[in-house]
Amino acid sequence: MAGGGPELAGLVGRARGDERIRFLGAVESDRVLDCYREADAFLFPSRSDVFGLVLVEALGSGIATITAAAPASTADLAVHERNSLVVQSHDPKVWAEAICRVTEDATLRRRLGAAGRQTVLSRWTIEHSVEAWVAGFRLALLCGARNL
To answer: Could you tell me the pTM of the whole model?
Structure first.
């Protein structure tokens, strides 16, 4: 597990003795891609992220992703069973089932990872970014014109 936060100490305590789990703490940005390459899956159980750029990074790295439905990036990028597993619940049992599916099924893991990477490669291009900026400027101009 990479990252930190107020729940980290409790998680470390609960996982004590389980050698399958490693806690890396905060990871330098130049090491994040290495973490994706070393992992079997990326879990994004967020309940409230406004967007969640980390999901874009994980999908783009080609790792299988499991995400909560709550982050806005999920609705924009993740398609359940196609390029990610989208979990509609915050119930730990439901998450455990999704994690087991991805870790036990190498074919599913590879398929989700490849499809996730393709999603990012086809949608997160410089052209896509420019089009989004232009659309935003047009919308701002339209809204501004209505307020005159």
So the answer is: 0.81
